[in-house]
Amino acid sequence: MASRPKRRAVSSGASQPQDTRIPRREEEEEDEVEDEDDEDSDEEEDEDDEAIDEEVTVEFEAYSISDNDYDGIKKLLQQLFLKAPVNTAELTDLLIQQNHLGSVIKQTEVSEDSDDDVDEDEIFGFISLLNLTERKGTQCAEQIKALILSFCDKNCDQRVVEQLDKLLSDASRPVGFLLSERFINVPAQIALPMHQQLQKELAEAHKTNKPCGKCYFYLLISKTFVEAGKNNSKRKRSKEEKDELMFANAEEEFFYEKAILKFNYSVQEESDMCLGGRWSFDDVPMKPLRTVMLVPCDKMDEIMDKLKEHLSV
Q1: Cβ count within 10 A of residue 129
Q2: Under 8 Å between Cβ of 54 and 93
Q3: Confidence bin at 47 (pLDDT 50/70/90)
Q4: Which of 23-27, 52-56, 95-99, 166-170 has the lowest mean pLDDT?
Q5: Average per-residue pLDDT for the chain
Q6: Would you call 110 helix, strand, or coil by DSSP?
Q7: Which among 57, 59, 193, 266 is least buried, having the fewest CB atoms inside 10 angstroms?
Q8: How far apart are CA 303 and CA 176, in angstroms?
Q9: pTM of the entire structure?
Q10: CA 95 – CA 168 distance, rounded (Å)
């Protein structure tokens, strides 16, 4: 494999693949009733359904980011930003260029006599950080800042907008855009060693004066959901807001708890069917959001303790 393996390997059992079947239309179901010849195909579908529900243990391993990971990283970034005007191609290039930081998650290599068909370059997730202050002037960094300021203006009081603008503009206190993206069927337990590794790399970068080494704040944009019909108006805030949010990456709730600034914005009109437009939990329809958080870097020790407490295997 072209990419250099990290020292830390992670493994977990997950249902692979996750059941993302789309409900059939009513007229299709009527056709099946009228056509008895379809019974054989129905039985085959039932067998497929049973196979989908089986739990398969998949071994994951972390590798340093390389050129081979371009397509996979860009795809995950597109799932985060959806139709937002952010140059994900440039962002992907920057993350690959600073390969002293970050990891990608890949399936552990299997033996040649295994029946599993493994694509060595397929990535299931990644973690990295882009220093928005250092990268000031690049198109993607400016687009990210403009995007969150725009949504902050639409969803928050003016005081919060001014606070965010000031923090993003303060060159003496760099802001790092923390990215931790993975496919929905990759378990949260993998986040702990990934964050631990990134913190080690950031400390080493700071010690050796490499890019991204020093940040005062981490900016996160998390994929979240809220029960459809809930009021997300900037005029209505309550202590129950966190409890209503469901995080696609469960560990990011601990970042949310330590954030000094946070707000949500809806992406329901932008989401494709796999990312939120038709999501439901326990038959309750959910509205897809993005939750923006600004977390002081000096809170990372407390956050890492929470990750160890809840995600250790």
Answers
A1: 23
A2: no
A3: low
A4: 23-27
A5: 80
A6: coil
A7: 57
A8: 16
A9: 0.78
A10: 20
Q: What is the pLDDT of residue 294?
A: 98
Of 80-89, 185-194, 290-299, the poorest mean pLDDT is in 185-194
Residue 294: Cβ-neighbour burial (10 angstroms; 0-12, 13-18, 19+)? buried
* CA distances for 70 relative to 73, 121, 158, 294, angstroms: 5, 10, 38, 27
Token readout for 213 is 């080494």
Q: Averaged over 142-148, what is the pLDDT?
A: 98
Which tokens is 1 given? Answer: 């494999």
Cite the DSSP H helix spans in the chain.
Answer: 26-34, 39-52, 70-81, 88-97, 139-155, 158-169, 191-207, 241-244, 252-258, 300-311
What backbone torsions phi and psi does residue 103 show, to the nearest 5 degrees?
-140, 155
Largest Cα–Cα separation, the chain: 72
How far is 284 from 265, CA to CA, in rounded Å?
A: 20
Specify which residues 293 forms β-bridges with: 220, 262
SS3 (DSSP) at 192: helix
Is residue 127 within 8 A of residue 73, CB to CB? The reply is: no
88-97, 147-156, 187-196, 282-291: the lowest-pLDDT one: 282-291
Question: By the 8 A CB rule, do 124 and 180 touch?
Answer: no
Distance CA 152, CA 298 (A): 24
Whole-number Å distance between alpha carbons of 104 and 85: 25
Cis bond leading into 17, ω under 30°? yes
Closest to 180 measured CA to CA, from 200, 193, 194, 166: 194
Confidence of residue 16 (pLDDT cuts 50, 70, 90): very low
Structure confidence by residue, pLDDT tens digits, 258-276? 999 999 999 998 875 444 3
Q: Which of 96, 293, 127, 306 is nearest to 200 (CA)?
A: 127
